[in-house]
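Hey all, sorry for the wall of text incoming. These are the two entities for the joint prediction.
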Amino acid sequence: MISPAQTATDSGTAEKTGGVEPLLSIRSIAKRFGSTAVLHDVSLQVAQGELLTVLGESGSGKTTLLRLIAGFEQADGGEIFMEGERLDPLPPYRRRVNTVFQHYALFPHLSVFENVAYGLRVRKVARTEIPQRVEKALALVKMSEYTRRAPSQLSGGQQQRIALARALVNQPKLLLLDEPLSALDANLRRQMQLELKSLQREVGISFVFVTHDQEEAMALSDRIALLRSGELEQVATPREIYSRPATAYTARFIGQTNLMRGRITNGVADCGTLKWRCSGPDGPATFSLRPESIRLCDAGSSGKADFVRFRAVIRSQTFGGATDLLETACPDGGVVLVRIASRGNIQRDCEFEFCADDAILVRG
Amino acid sequence: MNTTSSAHRRSRWLLIQTMAVFAFLYLPILVLIVYSFNGESVGGFPPRGWTLRWYRILMDDDALWSAVGNSLLVALAAMLLALAFGLPAALALDRASFPGKAVFRRLVLLPLILPGIITGLSLLMLFVTAGMKLSLLTIALGHGTALISVATTEIFAGLQKMDRAQEEASLDLGATNWQTFWRITIPNLRLAIIGAGLLIFTLSMDEIAVSFFLIGRDNTLPLEIWSRLRRGITPEINAVSTIIFLFSLVMILVWYRVRTRRGEELAELVPLKP
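and here's what came out:
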């Protein structure tokens, strides 16, 4: 099946990931429903033992991408490989991939034990082996005492754990999670995030986690793949995607930012009243500057050459515990968000500064 | 105080109304049962001389018992036939897309709306044209085909209520389509299938119009009773009706048990405490 051209791309991707073959390799996948293109030319790799988050707004195609990997949808173009072998022609039940569904989809007519044992039974695992594997999976999610309950007798968080155990008991190579925490309340959600992450480390299985919640993505992931209208906007570690967003959309979607539009001429960036040295190519440019990269100068300016200084009027101050968010207006009318360590008594009219390196050049 | 007393009055009215409705529904049945124990052969009020004579006569009435047997046989065959065709039809309506689906969906309900006379007459013409001898088989075929619509609609309703993610979860966990059908889809439809089966069974048991056209040499119970009524009513008919009534009651209780048992079973095993 594998043509020479494909073999060539194989070696190409192997180089990119440092010689280790990725567990999952999605290549130029496309999917349309009727006349709407849901996914367009998406290529993505998942490494062994990695927790990758597919992040995007609703309608960005993230769930469709998950369903393509699970085998519930057929792609209109492109291929999916798992450990070097074609995955996309296989039916769902032949894939070493398991899914935790958004609303868990536990079997209501089976007890907790039978729910977890289901995958083992249908795959004809030896009868004597089933009880101990089920016990182990339930112990992993701390639900050992609930074996004889019906799913309807469990709370949302408990059902969530059973859904996890039911998937993990099959020892998949890859676990897909479709917004599994979206039905839980905020506190339980944070707790489950931590548990999911430590569980993933414990079992060492690659997770592909779909969410629309950027904070969740930042807290959980090894890498984030940001989807926008069916196309990948950026794939990077949480730290990198936050500190070096590639596009204006990424910068806005992940955390808060100030987007400044202007142009670069002869290595000097020019955004209204502000000017600084910049290595970008000449032409129109957009910069992203995080609110916490800006600081107040009233305690004395650093005076360094590559710092950009400006005056602005504070229009509002929002208390946020450890930090305050200031909404300031520059003389030219532009609004700049500034995040500073919490404090009272700030003058209305202040001088601010930021390091030129922190203004990240982003695409449109 | 005033409001409570008017509320009292209203609730008493409601009570009387409820009693009236119940009386209207069940008094005739009660009278029927009482007269099955009547000592005199013809009606008359009040009933005199309690006796079990009619039940004794009934026990020795071979013709009537063979009619009961025939009816049970026909109802069972009709039920199996209707379910065997109704289940695939419901599945097709729920998940397949095929040309003329909307038309099929409406047409499948038609036998339910059509008067039994039309269904019976058209089936009679069909069987005659096909050269089939009228018998219990033709009645069973007639009931079965006419009641496919009941099976289809009941099971279709069950499928609509079912969470499709369950089937995907099953496939995801390694079950083939076939395994998923038997382990997930059918158990989820269990109540709908049993409900449809009992309904079809009952409808077939007391069906007269279609049976009347398709009857061969062997009578079903309703037709046997009806033919005897023409010769004059005897309390024996009351006795057999009483037995049918009790049988139906038992069926309803069985159905109720089946429906509630599963939930209790799992609930009783472990005390409800996290």
